[in-house]
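Case study 2.
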Amino acid sequence: MPQPALTVFLVVAAIVIVAVCVAVIVIALRAHRRHKLAETLEKRRDDEVQYAFVVNPSKPQATARRLHIQEFCKAKGLNRVRFYDTQLDKDGRACALEALEDGADVVIAVGGDGTVRTVASAVSGTGHALGIVPIGTGNLFARNMGIPVDDIDAALTVATSHGSRMVDMGRLTLLDHPEDDHGHAFLIIAGIGFDAAMIDDTDPDLKANISWLAYFVGGVKNLFAPKFRGNLTVTSADGSTHTTNNLAFRTVMAGNCGQIPVFSLMPAASYDDGILDFEIIDTTGGILGWANLFGDVVHQTIIGKPEQNPLSTNSTIEQVQGLSAEIVLGKPAKAQVDGDMLPETKHIRFSVDHRALIVRVPDASALEKTAQVAAQNATADFAETTGTIEPIR
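Prediction:
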């Protein structure tokens, strides 16, 4: 095996071994959390309103999940239930808008992060709640919300009973695509550069077989791609702007939630603080730089802070927070929102809508008087949230 290929193989193998070791610990912690979750769900109160289930039929489990949902609702006495299937020309947003027009009170996304993202973009700002029944491979937003990803009955119990949180919604606007009349919604992480190229080069079949680990394969394909250059302007929480010209980077990401399976990409990211966490990543020295970057991610995952490994020599992770950021590139690059690919672009803006979305979650202790606020601001028989916020797509 040629030396460069052997080096890449050893680095990837090391990454996988570390991931497996951490996963063993995560499994033990998950068992404890599952026990606590069961205790919490026993105290929840069912909500007998009109439900719309938006289902991604392309998922292998979709048909079985639909039957399971029907049986669950019947057993619970929830009779006002309708299903909407996404199609090639009808995404989750279109289905959710149709469901709301039909009188749905709670819209439940049954699918992966892509389905959740598009359904949420329609529900955002309407005063109606979003429920989630995860059947994707990553289910990153559900994980960040504490929604069970391996227990459909628990997820359904969460979605069909009282207990919600108000969550920020990010958007990525393609400023050089005048045909776009909206910002593309994201709930987890949006980015431009290496992360988008990695996602675009990930084999869907491999992803279906080994879940999120398939992204490592897509990443290896882009380890030696040229860097990106551009001007970056970040608007801070106090309204001040900071510009870096001719910035060289591998990827720039904006995070609403920072946790991915096993690792923490943005430890300081909070889904309801009204700001985004921006991460600018660069590497030098070929494979050494990428190895250092992996060490940086492991380091901040362990300490729980956005702090670079002090031993790193060939990688940089700059993390800043702000209300928005704008990037103008010298050459077009791929961009993504929550794992969904967007057209190549040279000019984008990241922004956030503060607490624009209501999500039904297991932890009802952090409601922050959501029910009282909903009652005060209700404009219909059903409302679970705030005043009018412009929906994003």
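Confidence is low (pLDDT under 50) at residues 366-383, 385-393.
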